[in-house]
């Protein structure tokens, strides 16, 4: 049987994770993101942000703003289509 402290359990129940997928793997989380307490996943190709859903502000907006490349850098956006819930048969 697993027993956890009440504060830790409550913190876990109100948290969510967001993963930022990277084009190239990182060896460590860049220092500029230290205030977000990010972790690396997927062999360094994901930055994972855990945030409190009950907090007044999640911090996601700040993280995304801070992760933008400089205006002089080129940027590629690849839209993704959500998987269809329809069957593969034609209609």
Provide a descriptive summary of the structure in words:
- The chain contains two helices and three strands; from the N terminus they run H-E-E-E-H.
- It is of the alpha+beta class and 91 residues long.
- The protein has a domain at 10-66.
- It has a three-stranded antiparallel sheet with strand order 1-3-2.
- The longest helix is centred in the first third of the chain and has 8 residues, at 6-13.
- It is globular and about 40 Å long.
- The termini are far apart.
Q: Can you count the helices?
A: 2
Q: Tell me about the biggest sheet? A: 3 strands, antiparallel
Strand content: 15-25%
Shape: globular
Instruction: Write down the secondary-structure element order.
Output: HEEEH
Query: Could you tell me the number of beta strands?
Result: 3
Structural class computed from helices and strand pairing? alpha+beta
End-to-end separation in angstroms reads 51 Å
Radius of gyration: 18 Å
Give the overall pLDDT as a whole number.
75
Low-confidence stretches: 86-91
Question: Main sheet: which strands, in order across?
Answer: 1-3-2
Approximate helicity band: 10-25%
Keywords:
single chain; alpha+beta; 91 residues; 16% helix; disordered C terminus
List the helices and strands and how they pair.
Blueprint: H1 6-13, E1 15-21, E2 39-41, E3 46-52, H2 60-66
Antiparallel strand pairs: 1-3, 2-3
Short summary:
With 91 residues, this protein is an alpha+beta fold. 16% of the residues lie in helices and 19% in strands.
